[in-house]
Amino acid sequence: MTTACIITIAITGSVPRKEHNPAVPVTLSEQIDSTREAFEAGAALAHLHVRNDDGTTTSDPDKFATLQAGIRQHCPGMIVQFSTGGRSGEGAERGGMLHHRPDMASLATGSVNFPLRIYENSPELIRDLARKMLDYDIKPEIEAFDLSMLYQALNLVDEGLIKAPLHMQFVLGVKNALPTIRQAFDFMVSELDRLMPEATFVAAGIGRHQLEVNRWCLETGGHCRTGLEDNIRWDKTRLAASNAELVGRVAGLCADYGRHPASASEARAVLGLGGVDG
Ligand code: ZN
Taking the model in full, what pTM does it have? Predict the structure, then answer.
């Protein structure tokens, strides 16, 4: 008996561009095709940003709605997660598409330095986004770029702004933020287990750390994230051919750790999400 591992596919993100890797999907139809291929390769959750046709990031609610509809149609039951991340708009604009009621949305619970700028999340903005997610019955995925963000997420549960149990994502390897250090990862996982044993978690290793962090998650009972948002390479010698190829690599590792890729319905059960109502 193996335990389910939810594979998240972060298809596009906001930084990687076609000139870096032509497999990065930009238009809505490219994004839907890429998500479908990843779904068929074993991904159960899609983490989504939307872009303008010139590749720049936008928070256009209509684009999010079209992308969600395409994924609902072509990837039955797949969990849809919108990013409220910092490059897609300013302040409250970042939550301007939440009325489309995706299953989940990302929520960073603190500010951090990114490679070239500050990823700014004021206490007020965090609470506004959390309240909106609560109103629309959207489960947040907490994006923790450092240890303090774990404790801030637990505080938001105490304040009644996030429903327990938490689903955490630990992000490792962003330049100027938390490095990819096993002891740091283990400490965050152990603190989450101590303070909210019923919580679930995933971790993202950025760039060359992607596969290493996938292995850590498989080993410790966590879930896995992969995709061209975080890493455009297969290895040192070549670019990743597609999001599906990266998903296939994680799916293929599961058995080594007594795990299997979660189906969409298994993933929904693990995260306490309802079915898709259309
Ligand atoms: Zn993202």
Answer: 0.96
